[in-house]
Amino acid sequence: MSANVDLNIRPDYDQVLQDIADYVLNYRITSPEALNTARYCLMDTLGCGLLALRFPECTKHLGPLVEGTVVPFGARVPGTSYRLDPVKAAWDIGCCVRWLDYNDTWLAAEWGHPSDNLGGILAVADHLSQQRVAKGQTPLTVRDVLDAMIMAHEIQGVIALENSFNRVGLDHVLLVKVASTAVCAKLMGAGREQLLSALSHAFVDGQALRTYRHAPNAGSRKSWAAGDATSRGVRLADIALRGEMGIPGALTAPQWGFYDVLFSHTNKDLALKPEGQRAFTLAQPYGTYVMENVLFKVSFPAEFHAQTACEAAVTLHPQVRDRLHEIEKIVITTHESAIRIISKQGKLANAADRDHCLQYMTAVPLAFGNLVAEQYEDDFHAAHPIIDELREKMHIVEDPRFTREYLEADKRSIANAIQVFFTDGSSTQQVVVEYPIGHRRRRAQGIVLLEEKFRHNLATRFTGQRCAQIVELCNDQARLESTPVNEFVDKWVL
Q1: How are beta strands 327-334 and 431-433 bridged, if at all?
Q2: How many CA atoms lie within 13 A of 335 on its CB side?
Q3: Does 484 sit behind a cis peptide bond, omega within 30 degrees of 0 on the bond before it?
């Protein structure tokens, strides 16, 4: 036989795909901590979506692709009156919840926002529940939504623990697409073969580049990229349930698979398989770890690597607010990931550029004592030249301990420290914040503030009576879990 002929023996599905499918189909969630955290994650994610509806740059993306389209049992978009097909509804929900970069985060070798998967989960669950009720069948409940959220968090987060996609230029929304595909396929009734097919297509699909998150090209696509990814997960699940064949070697196929095409050429730190191909390293089996350890953005709508810098800046504000023009330099001591991802100099072109700039996110609370979403907008930036004056005086320094403990499993700190030096030779003390309020180590403190944030976000869209009804329901774990999804979403629409 010629050595130049491919051996056409169809392989078994890649083990990574099988592990995800078996987890989604067979694992039973029993962790009270995971379920309780998922409840808060649901509240916070939907609340952040409501807050985003105040921004026209977000709302211009919402609604049917064809005006006037009527969708039977259309999935609803919280905070609006839209009823859309599940794919577009997933896009819209995902766009809203991610627009302000203000809800949960996962930081590891790769980072991301596992709550992005709620776009697909809620759209599918709402559509199916309305459909089932119309047929006299039992609808899905919010417990089904929470279970799907926990599993989506776990898939995205465990893969991210030791596998860096950003180092090969791929965006973390790839993992949103994979996780959404898996859990949405399950909600839609997929069997194992259908689920494997859907997952294989998620990896074979074109993957987003990180270009839109980095200088000099940072822009608003980063605010809708996750909506795009979770909606694609719904679409791929639908394709598989229609009987589309899968691609068993989607990851491992020599030359043509995901590993060889997109993951091996520069990712030298990844595990090397015996045959010389670099592959994912999965540090632990899938369970409920990620939801239990997820990070909430409680205080600031800011990229998570900057959360502790913002907190330190707020602490220093009373000492510097009357001396801003006397500042000689500002030293920000941080970790490697923050430097690589959000440290930037030069002109900031738009709000999306500013909310991923460590220096901007530090300068605003230093000068004004807080950081809110409106302070990223063009008019605010133009009205306050002091922000750029402070940025120009900032020096960024890496602390190796901060970098090391960012990745240590028993710590996963996100540390930043700030010290301000004045022209007269005096200085503030260095303020160090190692764990943000949304960290598991500060969970009790964070939950109180998270509830306040939730009530505030509800009030931006609904009447006091509606807000009270939603808060009462969401504060009762057992009642919430047993609520039909269609009745739950009823409370969130106009």
Answers
A1: unpaired
A2: 26
A3: no
